[in-house]
Amino acid sequence: MINKIILIIIFVLVFLVSGFGQEKLFSIGYGKTFISGDSSTFSFSLDLNRIPGKSETAGGYFINEVIGKSQWGYYVKPSMDINIGSSISSAPNNISVAIPIGLVYDAPKFNNNEGILSLYIEGAPEAISDKSFKNFLYYFSFGPFIKYEFNMSNLLLDLQTGISNAYGVRNQNKIRNDNYGRITIPLYFKFTCWNAKDKKVYRRIQIVNTLKYNLIYSDDFTLFNDKKYFFNNTKFDFYITSYFGLNISYNFGNEEPLFKKNNSISFGLTLAK
Amino acid sequence: MDKNEIEIGVIEVISLNSRYSIKEIKSSDPLDKFITSFMADRLARELKRKFDKIDTSEMTSMLYTILKNVSDVIDKIYSIYNN
Question: Total structural domains in chain A?
Answer without folding.
Answer: 1
